[in-house]
Amino acid sequence: MHACAWRSDEGPATIGSRFEAVGITNSEETRRIYRQMLFTAPGCENYLSGAILDPETLYQKSDDGVLFPELLKSRGILPGVKPHLKIYTLPGTNGDTVMQVRHVVASLLSFLALFTFVLITI
């Protein structure tokens, strides 16, 4: 029975600090291997209906060459993504800020159109 969404959206810095705390090198390949271990755990599809991914994860592949979003979908787990959007201070203002969204979301949506995806905007 599908029970919940799975938060696996830790960015490289956050997951890296966890790795380094236990003596594991923080590299893209190490993060890929870790995520692959999670996404291929036997029976996880019996308990998960969705997985929130970090943008880095969208382009990573399993050892078999399958993109992680496709791997999740093949197991009946709906992949979602939480974009990391940066806030910038507007020059010439008294600290007014803006979030640079348009180009990030536009490029992300064009990629997500290849899959059935949920865009997480929390």
TrEMBL record:
It comes from Triparma laevis f. inornata. Its EC number is 4.1.2.13. The chain crosses the membrane at residues 101-120. Pathway: Carbohydrate degradation; glycolysis; D-glyceraldehyde 3-phosphate and glycerone phosphate from D-glucose: step 4/4. The keyword Isomerase does not apply. This is fructose-bisphosphate aldolase. Coiled coil: none annotated. Belongs to the class I fructose-bisphosphate aldolase family. Pfam families: Glycolytic (PF00274). GO terms for molecular function: fructose-bisphosphate aldolase activity. It comes from the Eukaryota. GO terms for biological process: glycolytic process. Keywords: Glycolysis, Lyase, Membrane, Transmembrane, Transmembrane helix. The keyword Aminoacyl-tRNA synthetase does not apply. PANTHER family: FRUCTOSE-BISPHOSPHATE ALDOLASE (PTHR11627). Gene3D superfamilies: Aldolase class I.
